[in-house]
Amino acid sequence: MKRESSVPGAPSEELPPEIAAARLRLLADASRALASGLDAEESLRRLARLVVPQLADACVVDVVEGEGVRRLTVTDRDPDRALRVLSGGVLPGPDDSACALAKVLRGTGPVVVTDFGPSDPDDRLSSAQGALYRTLGARTALVVPMRVRRQELGALTLVRRSGDAFDEQEQSLAADLGQRAGLALDNARLYALQEHTAEQLQLSLLPDLTGLPHLQLATRYLPARERAEVGGDWYDAFPLPDGSAVLAIGDVVGHDLAAAVRMGQLRNMLRALAYDSGDDPAGVMRRLDRVMQGLTGIELVTAVIARVETPAAGPWRLTWTNAGHLPPLLAEPDGHTLLLEEGHAPILGVDPALTRETATITLPPGATLLLYTDGLVERPGEDIGRGLTRLRQHAAALAREPLPVFRDELLTRLSDVQHDDVAVLALRVP
């Protein structure tokens, strides 16, 4: 028969100074391990490695997953024992089980197990725990919850083979470790949820380009790798009534939800103004600047607005204007590259009366036009010129590749140390 008891809350006794110091060091080391990153599972594995052998011969970390329990890690003084019991599968949930782990996950609190007998064969979680205890050679075990806001996210199980009981201070220390582990797990899950929501929001704000079947386009948006924020990077492409098309890219200042919302507003205003006015790119940019400053709270924006004319006979023509953005890149099939630096003026949001000019170029057959945001080329502490040189070199090497390959390879080669959002819009001239 298996004996279990709830951990008592009796006052702790005075500890020898060296033992007290060792336990404080363990608590400090555990706190650092749990706070060292947002990969909760790896942090919990580090915690288990700290607990063994300082507090126990083995440490098991179980996390609640859906309706079941997943055994995340088993750490043992003897690595072979751990390998024999660690399983990637999901164990049954705690609702119908009578074992100590189930009780802890149902909110009972820390439980000490001191006697291990046969398990109920109909209780699958209890049977799994019994097999775990037998493989680890347990003679006493302490199960503590990883609890946050009255919710059990999992449990730590500390196992000893010596039979030495966990004293009150050790039980209190283990309970503290469980609480800190629960906070780390909860924070990581909240961060992951925030990151997923932010990325989905950003992607939902990016345009649907299916209305341009006659253009060969390739686009991509990559969120920054080091944060869970939406940003103001944006691109767009849409047809005009005369059969030409507008391509645009830009960056609204900010890296938060407000920047993403402003980005959506700006893109919608651009569509309406360009479609209805019939102006050239510089005229559309001036209108956008005036409307932006008069009707919105958007402050500073960089942007490129380009118009592609695609006559049935004769060469394609590009007209564009640039408001403080990085210059578009034209890569020809022979490897020649050109930064389109004409038509440049200050960013939007400074003065709507600024003079803006439209530049013009003939697009050679087979050439690739690339619009991009600064995250593709900027590196902290590096001159932007080096980033643009790097971009031209890679674009030249990829200029004859199919457009999706051009886009993907360019992103792979240039975003290996990505610190900012990246948006790209590429057009291949037939």
Automatic annotation (TrEMBL):
Residues 39-195 form the GAF domain. It comes from the Bacteria. Residues 212-429 form the PPM-type phosphatase domain. Gene3D superfamilies: 3.30.450.40, PPM-type phosphatase domain. It holds the Pfam family GAF. Keywords: Hydrolase. InterPro entries: Bact_Sigma-Reg, GAF, GAF-like_dom_sf, PPM-type-like_dom_sf, PPM-type_phosphatase-like_dom. The keyword Hydrolase applies. SMART domains: GAF, PP2C_SIG. Signal peptide: none annotated. This is SpoIIE family protein phosphatase. The lineage of its organism: Bacteria, Bacillati, Actinomycetota, Actinomycetes, Kitasatosporales.
